[in-house]
Amino acid sequence: MGREDEVRTCDAGETGELIRGMAGRIWDGSAPGTSPRLIGVRSRGVTLAERLAAEGIEQGLGEAVVGAVDITLYRDDLDKARRWPVLRGTDIPFDVDGADVVLVDDVLFTGRTIRAAINAICDLGRPARIRLAVLVDRGWRELPIQPDVVGLTLDTHRRDRVQVRLRPFDATDEIVTIPAAPRLSPS
Amino acid sequence: MLGLEDLSREEILAVLDTAESFAEVSRRDRKKVPALLGRIVFNLFFENSTRTRTSFSLAAKRLSADVQDFSASVSSISKGETFIDTAKNIEAMGCDVMVVRHPTPGAPHLLSQHVSSSIINAGDGAHEHPTQGLLDLMTIRQAKGKIEGLTVALLGDISHSRVARSNIWGLLKLGAKVILCGPPTLVPRSMERLGCEVAYRLEDVLPRCDVINVLRIQFERQQGGLFPSVGEYSQFYMMTQDRVRLAKPDLLILAPGPINRGVELTPEVADGKHSAILDQVTNGLAVRMAVLYLLSGKMDARPAGE
Asked: What ipTM score was computed for the predicted complex, to two decimals?
C-alpha cells in the first residue's frame, strides 16, 4: 500500500491519539446535553467522523450522529477533470435546518473541498452553526477557511502530498507525507 | 451519447451508478445542484415529444444549466435552412450540449460530425432512444437487484421501435436474455441476428419472463396493414390480468409510454402492482441528469479512481 518515497509522519498509535484528542474538543464545544451532528466529507472524512463518534462512546462523552456529504456536484473544476467522476451520494440522517453541525475531513489544504461541502450542506437546509474538524491541517489555503478543531498542524511544501490512512477504510492508521520531487535547478 | 450500441458494458454501468446518486438529489426539498452552472443545453426537437423533452429540461435545470427549447415547426427549418446549418447557428450561440430528436435514423450521428458540442440522442426515427434504454435498465436493476441472468421480453411493435433497439443492446451487454414477441409482421425472424429469441405467441413467452417491456403500437410510423385491426392485436398481445397470471409472481411490467390503454395493456395492469411505469418516469429524470453531467465535462468515458 505504501510508496517507497513516502515519509511516515504519524504511526497508528500517534494517529489514534490525535483522534482521541479531537473527540474531546468536539464534545467540549457542543452545547451541553446535545449530540454532535458529524458530517464527514466522502470518503475518509466519513471514516474519521465514524471514528470520532466511536471515541465519544469510548470516552463516555456521549453519542454522535454521523452523516456523509459527497461534494462531487459542487466542485468548481469539472472542466479540468479528465475522467468521469464517481458519485457516492450525500446521506445525512438528520434535519440540517437549525442543527449544530461539525464538518469532518481528513486533510485541510486549499479549502476548496470545504467550501464545496459547506455549499452542499446549506442546499439541504440552514444549519444553526457549522464547525470544521480536520485531522491534518497542512496549510496552503486558497480561501479564507479555518478549522475549529485540528488533530495535527503540518508544515508542508505546496507540491507535497499528505495522505491519511484510517481503519476500517484502510488496513492501518497512519499519516504519511510524499515529498514533491526535487526540482532541477539550472546549473 | 448516440446509442447504447456504441457504449461498453462498463460505460453503461457507470451511467446507471451515477443516476442512482442523482435520484437522491430529486428527493430533496431543494432539488438543485450547481454542477452545470453556466452551461447551455439546447433541446433540438424535430419531432413531437412532451415527456422526453420535459424530462431533459428538468434534468438540466436541476443541474443549474440554462436550457433553451428549439422546435422545428416554428424555426427557420420551415424557411428552408438545413438541419446542419441550424445546429451550427445554435452552436454559435455558445451551446454546450444538444439534445436531438429527429425522425431520421442517424441524424444525431450526422450532426456529431459537424458540430463540437456534446450530442445526446433523444430518439432518432426507429433507430435508438438511449436514455429510454438506460432508464429501463435502471428500473429493472432497482426492482430485481440485477440484470445479468434475467429473461426480458419486449412485446409488440419491435420493427418500428427505437426503444426496442436500445433495450436490446443494453440488456444483452449486461447479460440478460432477450425475447422479442409480437405479430410476425412487426417482429421479423431476421431480428434473431441481434442475439435475441423471436416468438409469436405471448402465452408461450410469459411463464419464462422476469420482465416484460410493453411497447407502444406506433401508428404514426406504419404504412398500415401490418396487422388486421387494433382489436385483433389486442386479442393476441394485450397484457391483461389473465395473462399476468400466466407469468412468474414477481413479473415486472415496463411500458415506455405514452401507453394506449386497452390496446397494449388494460388499465388494471397499467395501474397494477406489477407495473413500474411511474418509476420509469422518475428514473428517466435521474438518468438524464447523469448523462448531461457526464457529457458536460468532456471527460474520458472511464470512471475515475479514488
From this structure: 0.72
